[in-house]
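Help!! Second protein's tokens look totally different from the first
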Amino acid sequence: MYTVRKGKKEDLPAILDLIKELALYEKAPDEVTNTLEMMEKDGFGPEPVFGFFVVEKGEEKTIVGTAIYYYRYSTWKGKRLYLEDYIITEKERGKGAGKLLFERVLAKSLEDGCTGMMWQVLDWNEPAINFYKKYGASMEEEWINCNLQSEEIRALI
């Protein structure tokens, strides 16, 4: 019923739609400022900074989910795969597509010689937390996420 494959440039419109669906679910629909042009450059330009998988449904091969990842370096652990977004469209959740996709990303981390995989989950997203707990994922509570937007950085320097 579901198949997973590496993402292609022509998948990006569907991926951006999934990203917007996730932002709506996470109560931040106005936070998505990414564009197809940015994703094409950043994923398929001369120096790609992310990769992704898609999960497709049925013979019509409708994209129902994606896992977007990149690599980060931990001075304590070495090369890590960072799962930036893991999205299954709402109507396909709980049917096996997510498990198939997540396990493909886990395998990718090993294929690429990573020492592990990292990601974030919102503390109120109980379905996702319960899903990750099935895999024995550690949930760290003592770290606080920090960020600055480019406009804020420009104002500082």
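Here's the second one for comparison:
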Amino acid sequence: MISKKMLKALNKQLNFELYSAYVYLAMAANANTMGLKGFSNWFHVQFQEELFHADRFYNYILDQDGEVELEQIDKPKKEYKDAQELFDVSLEHEREVTRRIYDIASLALEEKDHGTHSWIQWFITEQQEEEANVKDIKDKLKLAGSTGQGLFMINTELAARVFTPPAVP
């Protein structure tokens, strides 16, 4: 059984993962509007990943005999000036997710909740990968510029991304 404080933190993160999905869905729509279908695909896959993460929090809360508390989801920003801004905002967002995941891990240690501490490690590794992937795309955009052949090549690369639910312990 988890503490009330931990339950509150897990529910807060569940809701933030749902908000994250919403953010990425809005980004996918905006990239599509810009004619960047590959970028749109990348963000749509990110949307699916965030839903997967939310589902993991949902199930963990229930497995710990906790009560799921769903909150209202804030409206995300819907317009971005270009692909670079999309990925600048995406990296900022992923860093916020990482900070929140670390806070849950720290709380688990503080409360000697070894089960939650063990469980949250998957998310810590996932966040390292998420940030690295976004930084890689930002670096490519910086090299390629926001128009022309370089942008076309990155758009083509991002179009190939597919969602594959990760194997989880």
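Reply: Different proteins will give different token patterns, so don't panic. Residues 18 and 54 are 6 Å apart (CA to CA).
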